[in-house]
UniProtKB/TrEMBL annotation:
EC id: 5.6.2.4
Organism: Longilinea arvoryzae
Positions of Zn(2+) 2 binding: 564, 567, 582, 585
Required cofactor names: Zn(2+)
Positions annotated to bind Zn(2+) 1: 555, 558, 595, 598
Subunit structure: Component of the replication restart primosome.
Catalytic reaction(s) noted: Couples ATP hydrolysis with the unwinding of duplex DNA by translocating in the 3'-5' direction; ATP + H2O = ADP + phosphate + H(+)
Gene Ontology terms describing biological process: DNA recombination; DNA replication initiation; DNA replication, synthesis of primer; double-strand break repair
Any one annotated GO CC term: primosome complex
HAMAP family: PriA
Family recorded in the similarity comment: Belongs to the helicase family. PriA subfamily.
The protein's name in its UniProt record: Replication restart protein PriA
Amino acid sequence: MTTFVQVAVNVPLSGSGIYDYHLPEELEGRVKPGCLVIVPFGKRTVQGLALRLTGESAVPETRPVQTLVDDQPALTAEQMKLAQWMADETLSPLAACIELMLPPGLSQHTGTLYGLNSEKLPAAAVFTPLQNRLIDLLRQRGPLRDGQIDNALPKVRWREAAEPLLHKEILGSQPFLLPPTVQPKRARTVWLTAAPETLAERLEGVARPGSAALERRKAALRFLQGEALPVDVAWVKASSGATLADLQSLAEKDLVAFGETEVWRDPLEHMAPVVQQAPQLTGGQMEALERVRAGLRQMDPSNPPAPYLLHGVTGSGKTEIYLQAVAEALRQGRQAIILVPEISLTPQTVKRFLGRFPGQVGLVHSRLSPGERYDTWRRARSGQLSVIVGPRSALFTPLPRLGLIVVDECHDDSYYQDDQTPVYHAVQAALAYARITGSVVLLGSATPEIGLYYRAQREHWNLLELPERILAHRQILATQASQSGISMPELDNEGEAAFLPLPPVQVVDMRQELKAGNRSIFSRSLQDSLTQVLNAGQQAILFLNRRGSSTYVFCRECGHVLRCPRCDMPLTFHSDTNDLRCHICNYQRQMPAYCPQCRSTSIRQYGTGTERVESEVQKTFPNARTLRWDAETTRQKGSHEILLSHFSHHQADILIGTQMLAKGLDLPLVTLVGVVLADVGLNLPDYRTPERTFQLLTQVAGRAGRSPLGGRVILQTYRPDHYAIQFAAKHDYSGFLQHELAERRKIGYPPFSRLVRLELRQRDPASAEAEAHRMAEQLQVWMDQEGFTSTRIIGPAPCFFARQNGLYRWQILLRGPEPARLLRGKTLGEWRVAVDPTSLL
Ligand code: ADP
Ligand code: ZN
Ligand code: ZN
């Protein structure tokens, strides 16, 4: 009986991407679900993943599977379920989701090998010049891969020229799988084989007397004498000055022998972990941890515990709970995945995991070499790593006994992938994966996304709250206090922990500054505070929200922002046409001469960059040492770490930076955080801007006052009454939550509806616009046909970031109870689809 196998094939635009094949006799019993196979596809040979084996196929004639790449499945059964879930949920091809889980170097690697059959060459043939070049090339160099021919014959259509030659069998071609580009790293080793007596006898005879080689070889032998185990050749060379030729000569004389060991490329090599003991937990932490532990002990795959949402202000001891939850999972013989926002921005968190679980942590990192990733993948699969720490892609590391998934700073944008297929949210994927594997999922944040919090309440998740800020061990605080020459303040204590209040936040109304004649970008209050901080030898952070600055138009007298009369979204200024535009509905108008509210002429677009802030600081405080941390100064590899270490060693007084500053930094000398303009983010045309502004301000404010020196925050704004600013200033998450939920309910946006965004990118603006309108009409037809009466089409309109890499972007939004259902199984051509997009810009 034939065995059929369904294979997910990773070929762009191949519909569902799932095809039926059958197993040839020699592969019977060897191909298992999750195995990588090579299959014919059209005229090509491609790689695919075996999904299911069945006894029958709906396809009348199937082709055979060609090769089995590896007997061991590349994906676990749970990973295959997760891939399926992601494909359904994000409307992406299954193969694209599977691709996320394949180790680098094992994804698509097929090619074609071309060779010349010289005996078929006619004596006198009329070939085109290009055909002659191709024949000469293969004659000279032997069989070549298509990629090699591409390099040898650049910019010509040699494939077309090859067709007739293949037909006449003058050329032969053969599909094949390229070996994975990454191989395990092997180190050449060498060790001493001679006994000590022999060595002493023969030492002087290993080279010509008096030669330099004699000295080098003797040094190498003496070095190896002191080593009990085989030593890396490179190391011997470095410590003795011997060359490889020297060592080879010694091997010929049977004094040493060569060997090879597989070395793991360890990305953590350069990060020196500090082993830390777990502190005694506070009562609040204890209670939270106990509930997580109960979930971990339950571990019933058929009945996974409800998700945990840990809401705790910055510095409330969340990371300590993650650490102890991981310890519990390990005690249960299970493994853990810890997702963090980008690693270079959260080095302190990563170090704590390394220190607590030495030797057991694998790091997944966007800057790892493919070889390092491959090794981490294989070590995880073989059970040698129990804890994986990394950004969103770390979720796809194969762990056979997963028990815990932690998502730190779960509100962070980096968990959302929108630049390639599949467009997915790692928090949603983590929730699904926890259900599939029966694991505990623990999401933590000081500012959980309100849609998530709303869901946690409605679906009876485990809500854990840590309202108090722990600064550190009392002992560490006392040391810090005496080092900085201040007396230890009176603090609430519990065990080893000391509590410190959140820093006071002052909201400065910039309209009043203008009235008082201060035209600087710094308010008088911020200037005074900076002076104090500099005089006291402390540090300050100046934060600037770069996203979408310089584009909205507002009145500097009264703070009025120009909005679309139809959508109530801020209008965007376009300097090329000097007009204003709504990026939701495409409304356009001229730039007004007067403020429609107060008739002032001070109405203009806003624009301040980090350079401008830095030069203002230097003008006002010529002695202050400044450091800029923005996209420009951190372009180079490793520059985040360098800047951060520079600042934390007090080699600068004022750090001027953008969004990146909001991540988990802990800088004890920082006693002042100034937000140059708190309302910048509020003026983007997206329903989530109040929430994002609140999150950002709360996170940035959390950077101040993380030591007994105390601290304060100054928010400069033209809109001091805006609720996002008000609630952020009071550190009032639940107040904001209530208010924002009420707003969302009014406008019918998530979590009270769901969104799907369709986005188009094209080189030609006119054709992009035409296609956008065509698609909107098509969507309307589908909606009418299928009775989507409570779903609305919004747009089409150009995106807020209307051009990217020379392409014009247009978007259409669908809003309703379940808009994604409309698109399931439909062909959308070049439109990119984002289900539940996190941004509409
Ligand atoms: P979060 O992750 O919420 O920002 P952390 O876990 O980083 O908070 O805790 C903040 C600081 O308090 C850290 O320096 C941490 O080592 C320390 N800390 C946490 N829990 C305790 C405790 N129970 N006793 C003493 N120090 C603690
Ligand atoms: Zn005005
Ligand atoms: Zn509009």
